[in-house]
Amino acid sequence: MREIKIFIVVAFFTGIIYWGVEPFAHSQMHAHVESGNFEYKELKEVKAGNAKHGEELVMSNCTACHAISAKGMAAPMDAVTSAATYGVNPPDLSNAGGIYDAKFLAAFIADPAKATNTSHKFVGGKMHPMPAYNWMPESDIADMVAFLKSMAKEDITPKEVFTDACGRCHAVRYDNKVMGEKWTQIGQKPKFKYEKESLAYDIKVIDYQDALAKYMGKLPPDLSMIIRARGEHFLKTFIEDPQSQLHGTAMPAVGLSEEGFHKVMKHLENVGDPSKEARSHYGQYFMLFAIIFAILAFIWKQAVWRKLH
Amino acid sequence: MSDNTNRREAMAGMALGACAAVGGVYALAGMKSAWDPLPSVKAAGTTSVDLSTAEENVLYTEKWRGKPVFILKKTAGMLAKQSNNDKKRDLIINGSSYLVCVGLCTHLGCIPSYKAESEDFLCACHGATYDISAINTKAPAPLPMLIPPFKINGNTLILGEAGDEYNKMKEAGVLGKTPLDPKA
Amino acid sequence: MAHFDENAKPFSEQWLDDRLGVRTLKKVLAKEYWIPKDINFLWAMGMLLAITFGILIITGIILLMHYKPDTALAFDSVNYTIMQEVGFGWLFRHMHGVAASVVFLLIYIHMFTGIYYGSYKRGREMIWLSGMLLFVTFSAEAFSGYMLPWGQMSYWAGMVITNIFELGSLEFTGLVEWIRGDYVPGDAFLTRFFMLHVFLLPLAIIGIIVLHFGTLRIPHVNNQEGEEIDYNAEAEKYLAGDTAGSKVIRFEWDFLSKDIMVLGFFLIFFFYLVFFHYDFALDPVNFDPADGLKTPAHIYPEWYFLWSYEILRPFDKDIGLMAFGFAQGIFLALPFLDRSPNTKPAHKRGLFFIWFWVMVIDLIVLSVMGKVPPIEPFGSIGFYSAILFFVLWIALPIITMMEKKVK
Fold this sequence. Notes:
In chain A, about 55% of the residues lie in helices and about 0% in strands. By secondary structure, chain A is mostly helical. Chain A has 2 domains: about 1-30; about 50-275, no CATH class. The two termini of chain A are about 15 Å apart.
């Protein structure tokens, strides 16, 4: 009857406004970028290598800059000094084999700037802080990758993946038990009893950030709310290939495997949107309540209006 | 208007009212949650104190839940002079005896000052005094200074958690919630 | 001295009636507040608006307990403390943000229902004017509220909208700085908009709502045919028992029962948005903390301001500002620009029916164009749509003067 027709008209125009202002307008603002699903199709396959030989190679070639806590090798310098020297703190390699794609690891060891798509930064005499190992035979690189994979532990937590892959450039102030004991580029800020110690730590963080900003061109942003500021699709395509979303960016392609990526997303969700599960959970109950309320209201209205028709 | 219609109306109305009331109750419960102390506030409810370098007869003041807590390592001389009630209020941490109490006068809440020469406390506001175990010795203080929940971990004192020693003191009635005779 | 029944028990109906006139109040406001029967569900928008405003106030009160109006603390007080620490804080924030957006959908439906059925005409001008005042105050309230999370959109919207007060070639930079309390939107700006959002504007809104209800009382609510009802005669019929034949119904519970039913369906829609589909109201760009040294790639106002924004955009500075000013005020003049003698629904008013739908479509096109980047063809479409807006208003007196009286 008439009221249904009126409702359809109202719903139709509301729908048009919604479509125009949301999906349509946003498609005009951002070109759609397809995801490669972390298959790294363009990278060369890596043959299975000899992990034992790989261990020798890694120990002799990498530990000058990289810590390997799983093998008892401490970092040669503290984070702040590393940043001052290289621009960024070289990561601990213990879990690298379980986080990054094997093809990427091989390509990265061979030529870091090329694999991370950051060659555009290293011009005019500037060099990537990590040297290229493309003088090594491919089998040697394959051996090193095999070693890294064998060394990585089974259950790497989302936070551990984030720490290795992202945490040396990105702070996360919401990653804390209480506000203040946050994730910084030099580690989780501990609880300090005395203000002086807390400030001393903050100064170390600032020193690190200054060196990092100089190396990157700009300080990489705090990622606390990035999960809601950008959304899953953008982050997926951006992390896989930063140049695809922000051409010319200084952020390197980090070579996360698909599993590594999902764990990073989980961590970002934990720090930026922990109410996600609660939303779907309570949403069901609220919708159910509203439906019951509407049905009962309808029945009551019918009863009241019986005498009026 | 028929009675049936009236009754149908009333029943439907009451069903709707009940549904709305249920929703209202849950809404109020949700709003009450929003008033609850935040997790970060509750987490700040315990404080750890390292006593490995504590000196005798020096009053240390720690902040716990916004309040001052007195910590005093007792000398052998103090231990020889003190009463039974005093002894019952001692915290034994790594072999030494300590006074640990909330540093607020039980009269009206001022912070008493410690007199090292006379080994007692004097509250400047209205003249109340307390002995070396913070048991009140002069009016207008009505009760001993309160011993907060505590736990002992080797050399570390944790304020805000009730350990075994605290529970024993509670059963013995020496925390300061009831009056104590300083001479007994 | 009024008459007091000595035997009345304290707080009984008689006792209260002697002192507060509750029986009369009940008659006038509920039992014998007569509403036409010939109405449809669109007449429930007023109640939905009141309820949504209530939701905004209650959720606002809870948010107010935890929000910190300081540029260094605001963003985290919302996105960490409220969203992650406060019990159900995320729910109250979502409800507040979604309700703030949905309230404008309701306002527009309510407004255009009034335009369609001629509910601004003869005798009802004050209802229309007080309603438009509510639109203006709600707009100010929404804008001030959007500043508070202090995200990128908050900052840059604040920058752009306060820049308008430079008034183009008049270059009132001093005025802009005075409004902001600083050279750029900063702490002073945030705290004063906090004051407006939490205190002054809600107070004004409540006052104007009371006025709006007051303006309804004498002319009565309109009906689907624009018929002038003899309320006394129809009320007598109803009270004599001919409830089916009477043209009027009681406010309580006849009208209210239908309102509440519409409310029930509305809540299903509302809660769906709150829990499952809220990006339109909680824009991702505002989850980046405000950065005065970096403008986001795309800045846009909330959807309900887009048509207005698009009227400003296509023109040169001064013309744009004049166009913008015109657009804000012209709806207020509607009762006086419509020269026809008919208080009838639009489908009985010939050319006005066409005018109405062209206006609706024009505003929708303006809204969409206001959101998309001003590249071609959107730039041109926006420009011509803005021109059409002015043509429509100039045409209105002419079209309506030509209307013949409809029986």
